[in-house]
Amino acid sequence: MIDKQFEKEEFKKSVKENVKFLYRKTLEEATQEQIFQAVSYTVKDVIIDNWLKSQKAYEKQDPKIVYYMSMEFLMGRALGNNLINLGAYGEVKEALEELGLDINCIEDQEPDPALGNGGLGRLAACFLDSLATLNYCAYGCGIRYRYGMFKQEIRDGYQVEAPDNWLKNGYPFELRRPEYAKEVHFGGYVRVEWDPVNNQNKFIHEGYQAVKAVPYDMPITGYNNDVVNTLRIWDAEPIVDFNLDSFDKGDYHNAVEQENLARTIVEVLYPNDNHMAGKELRLKQQYFFVSASLQAAIAKYKKTHDDITKLHEKVVFQMNDTHPTVAVAELMRLLMDQEGLGWDQAWDITTKCCAYTNHTIMSEALEKWPIELFSRLLPRVYQIIEEINRRFILEIQQKYPGNFEKIKKMAIIYDGQVKMAHLAIVAGYSVNGVARLHTEILKNQELKDFYEMMPEKFNNKTNGITQRRFLAHGNPLLADWVTDKIGPDWITDLSQLSKLKVYADDEKALQEFMTIKFKNKERLAKYILEHNGVEVDPHSIFDIQVKRLHEYKRQLLNILHVIYLYNQIKAHPEMDFYPRTFIFGAKASAAYARAKKIIKLINCVADVVNNDASINGKLKVVFIENYRVSNAEIIFAAADVSEQISTASKEASGTGNMKFMLNGAPTLGTMDGANVEIVQEVGEENAFIFGMSSDQIINYENNGGYDPDFIYNTDPEIRQVLMQLINGTFSSDTEMFRDIYNSLLDKRNMPRPDQYFILGDFRSYAEAQKRVEEAYKDEKRWAKMALLNTACSGKFTSDRTIQEYVDDIWHLDKVVVKEN
Ligand code: 26M
């Protein structure tokens, strides 16, 4: 059903009016950016009606609400996605054409709201889409960073970070809600007073600095169901403007500090991925949005309910990793100090309201805060954590009398640090990993002691992705083809894709499928030419690795293998070799020197390989600048091969792997994260699996015995590749890649050389790459494989993931908004 406003003539009229109203211009005079704003306002108008309608329905039905608490929401552009979900994309595309406008150019005017780093933040965005589409009442709770994920520029092969000022033209899809502002307090001290009325101690927080948290709401549209949920992100403002008033009161210093605090707290997203830096400002950010969100949730609950002890019947807080874990102590504080409950009652409610998702086993990522910092910044919250810890240690002692090892390993406060994961597990009623293998590793390795003590809390929720963005919007050619073959139901029921299996041996269908892939490769080739100035051949194999740059993800293994292939072609020019384009996209955390060097290496190898006429263009290497959600959609659609080559056990799940699969790219990968489940769905014969298993890796890690030196000494081809890092082949500065070389071989390299088993897996990877080439040469076999990947990807929709969260953890009620 098309809304009246998306009826073409109405729509055109509204866009023209908005251009006039907003900019005092005619359509002909307006810039593309101004037209984008005008179009967005028209769309927002429709959304606001549904938003109000959803609100009404929620008020009437009083469903249980999930608050998805996350430091990151990597939303990507809203305009196109909203049009898809409103079922109006086609109409609007045509209407714009009639105005002489190209919808792609209009969409390209929107900045990517990049309020996240990578997988964890993008997962949160997919979850919000699925929650709205499945008719559940949900709020995303986060921070309105002034600067999101930095923009990456490549200069002379190096990554250079540029600020992402995403708000500079005003963002049309947000709504400031000053009436819901909340105060958040930092620092100061706690005074204890006896309260004779309630016969208990009263804790009074004084001498603090206060910040005003002001929410901005973004609409989250469900697919074709009129549901509009809310992503609520908090901005910080000073409580009172710095003025002479406070100066007169002698409060000058404090007024300046409060103003500074408000300005700095939401300034920028920390661009770290899987790495904890321990910065005080980061903890301030965490407490800031958590406290504001909890206050708002409690206030909302109390508007229509008078018994706070039943909060858990209507509210659940899902903590996206440990970043918002201070929520458990803050909820205790609000229930006790604001609502007047005693410890036991408050604890009972808190432990029924909070649940925790773990996203990584990388030890550098585990959040631990020095108690000195924590208690200074959040004195009352720290007191509460001490009491939670005291009681938990008593429990440990009861269960394991005399076993001090257990206390050492499981205490929330130990070695002068607050361990956020331990707090989350102790206070949460659910602890989940994000893929089957990852959850098993949590239970049997990382969190073994906790699993033994409280097995009932542990469960798995394999990640998923939204097909609305990553197929319907990102790959319209394939989306139309799928609809043509099996009807449109896949958009809300991805398991339908299995119906495509009947086409696996249908030559006509296979040809259509591969023609679409080819067109998408042409689209990407055009993008690469325009943005990178490199010409690539869409007839070559597009072999793609796009994800954050991290040693465990092993972009280094990929580029070393490219060097190896280059050497082979040079040594055997007559060799039969299918042309290949290796495409990379990755941001490195700004402070991660080795990761940045790997980017430089990729670009240096690209320079040499792409300019070597003697290899006849058989090999191309491209580094796509500024990989982000908007260009990801184009990249996934165009991939032949999906590189998922993390050291087994290290990648908790991965979600890019699912996006490639959905778009018909077979996985070249290790048995890690969700790759394991992908292979299970598609069959081993339709994937290229290599490398050591997670058991083998974990065994080496625990018992030693891995020796990259032996490989270096016994495999001359690998040795040649490593020598080329330091002999001037790719940089006249022979010291340029010395650190990378050393990281693989130098025994002084801490904690051990080649931590990520790059040399150990090299041969196995090269063989798997050989199998890729053989398979690709057989056109029919490849087409079948590609099609089956799409056909078997149904499990990996975030709709399935969300339904599992609802069934096992959240127990939400379905809400009807759209009357039939
Ligand atoms: C921590 C402290 C200070 C600053 C930043 C951080 C931090 C930020 C993001 C730590 C980890 C962060 O993200 C981890 C992450 O993205 N994990 C990924 O989660 C995905 C969704 O579950 C999985 O698919 C990936 O395998 C996992 O790496």
UniProtKB/TrEMBL annotation:
Its EC number is 2.4.1.1. Gene3D superfamilies: Glycogen Phosphorylase B. Its cofactor is pyridoxal 5'-phosphate. It comes from Blautia luti. Coiled coil: none annotated. Phosphorylase is an important allosteric enzyme in carbohydrate metabolism. Enzymes from different sources differ in their regulatory mechanisms and in their natural substrates. However, all known phosphorylases share catalytic and structural properties. Allosteric enzyme that catalyzes the rate-limiting step in glycogen catabolism, the phosphorolytic cleavage of glycogen to produce glucose-1-phosphate, and plays a central role in maintaining cellular and organismal glucose homeostasis. The modification N6-(pyridoxal phosphate)lysine is found at residue 659. Belongs to the glycogen phosphorylase family. Keywords: Allosteric enzyme, Carbohydrate metabolism, Glycosyltransferase, Pyridoxal phosphate, Transferase. GO terms for biological process: glycogen catabolic process. This is Alpha-1,4 glucan phosphorylase. It comes from the Bacteria. It catalyses: [(1->4)-alpha-D-glucosyl](n) + phosphate = [(1->4)-alpha-D-glucosyl](n-1) + alpha-D-glucose 1-phosphate. One of its GO terms (molecular function) is pyridoxal phosphate binding.
